[in-house]
C-alpha cells in the first residue's frame, strides 16, 4: 500500500519514503571503502626530537659537515688569502679610481690607467733590482781569489785553519750528498720564485676585476641588509672603506719616505745605483711584515759586495731606521691619515702580525679605525639610551 505524499512533506522525507528507482545497488565485486582517516591506516605519532638515535644521527651529520667545510677551507687557504689581499687592495685603490672618474674618465678607462701604473711600478722595481744585483755579484765573484789570498797571508787565520782542521772538514762536506742537497735547494728556490710570480700576477688580475666591479659588489652587499637599516649601514660602510683608502695612502707615503732616505744614504756612502736601490726599498716597504727587512738585506748585500765596512754601515743604518719607522714614523702617519692613536696603531700592528701574519698586517690599522667608528656611532649612543 503506497503512502501518499502531501505538499507539506519535504523532498528528503519523500526520498526516504520512495527511494529513486535509478539508484544503483552496491555490487558484491566493488572494493570496500577505506575505513579510518587514510587509505593506508592512521599515521603514527611523529618522531620525538629528544629521541637519542635522532640526536646522535643529526650530531654526527653536523660533525661530518663541519669537518668537510674545514678541509675545504684548509685546502683553499692560499687562494682565499690571495682573494682577500686583492679585495683589500681594490678597496684601498678605489679612491684613486673615484678621483680619475671625477676628472671625466669612465670607470673602465680609470681602472685601466690605475692598473697600468701599478704594473709599471712593479716592473720598475724589478728592473731597478736586476742591474745592481748582477753587477755587484759579478764583482764579488771576481774579488773572491784576492780575498782568499789576503786571508792566507794572515798568520792568525792560518793558525785557526790548522788548529781546527778546516780544510779537511770543507773537503768532507763537499760530497755527493751535499751536491744533491744544493740542487734540491736550487729546485726549491726556483719553485718559490715561480710561485711568487704566479701569486703576484693572480693578485693583480683579481685587483683589476674587483676595481672594475666594485660598485656592483658594494650594492649587492647593501641589498642583503634590511631596508630599514640600509641607509645607516651604507653610511658606516662607506666611512670604513674610506679609512682603508686613507691607510693605503699612508702606507705609500711611508714607502716613499723609506726610498728617499735610502737614496740619500746611498749617495753619502757611495753605493752603486743609488736611485735603483731606493726604488727597491720603496717597493719592498709596501710588503707587510717582511718588506722592510727584505729591502734592507738587498741594500746591505750590495754594500758588502763593495766593502766590509760599507756593508756593516748599511746594516747599522737600516737597523736604526726600521726602529724609527716602526715606532715614530708609522704611528704618526697613521694617526693623521686613518685618525688612529699612536698606541692603538703600534699595538694593532704588532697583534695583527703576531696573530694573522701578512693578513693581520694588512687589516690591523683599518680594523682598529672601523672598531672605533662603530663604537662611537653605534655602541655609545645605545649605551646612553639605556
From TrEMBL:
The UniProt entry's sequence similarity note says: Belongs to the autoinducer-2 exporter (AI-2E) (TC 2.A.86) family.
User: Record's superkingdom?
Assistant: Bacteria
Q: Where is this region: Disordered?
A: 1-45
Give the stretches traversing the membrane. 52-70, 76-97, 109-130, 192-214, 235-257, 263-284, 296-324, 344-375
Keyword Transmembrane helix present in the record's keywords: the answer is yes
Q: Which Pfam families match?
A: AI-2E_transport (PF01594)
Q: Where in the cell is it found?
A: Membrane
Q: What lineage is this protein's organism placed in?
A: Bacteria, Bacillati, Actinomycetota, Actinomycetes, Micromonosporales
- Give GO terms for biological process: transmembrane transport
Keyword Membrane in the entry? The reply is yes
Predominant subcellular localization, coarse grouping: membrane
Task: Give the UniProt keywords, A-Z.
Answer: Membrane, Transmembrane, Transmembrane helix
Q: Which organism is it from?
A: Actinoplanes friuliensis DSM 7358
Q: What is this protein called?
A: AI-2E family transporter
As for membrane topology, the entry says:
Multi-pass membrane protein
Q: Which GO terms describe its cellular component?
A: membrane
